[in-house]
């Protein structure tokens, strides 16, 4: 995988900071993608062996993930991937309901025409090329990236990735659903943005996220998660 290649390249360059960042990125991607399952225990030595690095960049990456509340330190044992909680789910979606509409409103006012025109690629979904979760993530990130505010964009990218973890843990609430209605909502948001109607784009996006919150929270409530 590309990140494995990056780790190998950074190792060859001898940059400890680069190694730490590469290990961090890989572990975070695996946690949010549920390749490392909620509740799974992690060991510095095992991870160092897997990535063929010393324990130091692994330890630094794990401490960074702890600060982001994705893992918990187990004294004298190691680390554990944090379980999904309904409280976290609600927090993530409520935060998205604030940040993403704000990005959309700014995008409608300030984004170049070419950036808004590029959103046309999300008017359709090709199941032969991508799964719906990946397509949906790419759409929300693309809208956020049209905002001129870097910190807001970066925050949305992280929030959307964390929301995808919730979807995966909830047994794929997006997967297996007829996506036509959701794609139609994307199209309406795109058209509002391209019409430079920031208020409408923000309202549509807020409603779209709120509906997703209802589906995910309802699904999580039916499964064994931390309240």
Order of helices and strands: HHEHHEEHHHHHH
Structural class by secondary-structure content:
mainly alpha
Tally of helical runs:
10
Q: How much helix, percentage-wise, in residues? A: 55-70%
Query: On the 0-100 scale, what is the average pLDDT?
Result: 88
Question: Which labels suit this protein?
Answer:
mainly alpha
Please, could you describe this protein's structure?
The chain is mainly alpha-helical. It is 67% helix and 4% strand. It is built from ten helices and three strands. The chain has helices at residues 2-13, 16-32, 44-51, 55-67, 86-110, 113-117, 132-145, 150-169, 180-194, 198-221, and strands at residues 41-42, 71-74, 78-81. A three-stranded antiparallel β-sheet has the order 1-3-2. Strand 2 (71-74) and strand 3 form a beta hairpin. Helix 9 packs antiparallel against helix 10.
List the helices and strands and how they pair.
Elements: H1 2-13, H2 16-32, E1 41-42, H3 44-51, H4 55-67, E2 71-74, E3 78-81, H5 86-110, H6 113-117, H7 132-145, H8 150-169, H9 180-194, H10 198-221
Antiparallel strand pairs: 1-3, 2-3
Helix pairs in contact: 1-2, 2-4, 3-4, 5-7, 5-8, 5-10, 7-8, 9-10
Short description:
The protein is 67% helix and 4% strand. With 227 residues, it is mostly helical.
């Amino acid at each position: 995988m590309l990140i494995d290649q990056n780790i190998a390249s950074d190792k060859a360059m001898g940059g400890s900071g680069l190694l730490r960042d590469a290990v961090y990125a890989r572990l975070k991607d695996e946690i949010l993608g549920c390749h490392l399952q909620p509740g799974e225990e992690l060991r510095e030595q095992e991870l160092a062996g897997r990535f063929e690095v010393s324990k130091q960049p692994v330890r630094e990456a794990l401490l960074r993930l702890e600060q982001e509340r994705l893992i918990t330190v187990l004294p004298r044992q190691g680390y554990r991937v944090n379980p999904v909680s309904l409280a976290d789910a609600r927090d993530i979606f409520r935060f998205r309901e604030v940040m993403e509409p704000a990005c959309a409103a700014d995008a409608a006012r300030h984004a170049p025409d070419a950036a808004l025109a590029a959103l046309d690629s999300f008017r359709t979904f090709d199941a032969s090329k991508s799964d719906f979760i990946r397509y949906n993530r790419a759409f929300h990130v693309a809208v956020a990236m049209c905002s001129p505010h870097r910190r807001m964009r970066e925050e949305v990218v992280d929030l959307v990735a964390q929301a995808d973890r919730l979807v995966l843990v909830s047994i794929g609430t997006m997967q297996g659903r007829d996506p036509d209605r959701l794609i139609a909502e994307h199209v309406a948001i795109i058209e509002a943005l391209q019409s430079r109607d920031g208020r409408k784009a923000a309202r549509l996006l807020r409603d779209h996220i709120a509906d997703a919150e209802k589906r995910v929270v309802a699904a999580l409530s039916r499964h064994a998660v931390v309240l």
